[in-house]
Amino acid sequence: MAAVLACGEGAVLSHRSAAELWALLPPTRGIVDVTAPIPGGRKKRAGIRLHRSPSLPDAATTRRCGIAVTTTARTLTDLRRAVPAEIMRKAIRQAEFRNLDLGPVQSDRTNSELERAFLRLCRRHRLPAPEVGVRVGRFTVDFLWRDQRLVVETDGYAAHRGSQAFEDDRQRELELHALGWRVRRFTDRQVRRQGPVVVAAVADALRSGPPRS
Description:
Blueprint: H1 2-6, E1 12-13, H2 15-21, E2 32-36, E3 48-52, E4 61-64, E5 67-70, H3 72-79, H4 85-97, H5 113-124, E6 131-136, E7 139-145, E8 150-155, H6 157-160, H7 163-178, E9 182-187, H8 188-193, H9 195-208
Helix pairs in contact: 2-3
């Protein structure tokens, strides 16, 4: 609170510090982020990173624990430009878990680094964007192209090793096929080391369209 008061009227906790106050990220020691509705010129203060926003709207601010702070939606918007992608994903997931307002920021709905690597591969090679983490029958599939009736599953070694995992995966495929979905599976190694091959396989499946009835 002292950092906010030190920055004058209209100043609010923001960015990483606001995310910590909202419990979206674990607390850290160090510089405090404060946004103030001023055009510039205020003297720097030790321990405070001042972000100037001359047009900070009232709707983007609130109070939490008695401290003026940016809303969760504004906090996530600010945070996206200030932290690495992995930290941003953690903040978004925590906000989703607590049913807080994400504003314009949307989750990519991935559950692992392997899934994120596959999604990056799709974006890099400009494949049509899949739906992520979607329910199909009794399963939640990794990636889905609805119009083409295509499901892609990414298999990390830790979660898919062993005979029971192998049997479960085969049963899953059988049930998805019975529901009219085509399934393509890619391993961690394929996604990370054979990207062009994976992209070509997905692109070919998308071009071939839905299975004929």
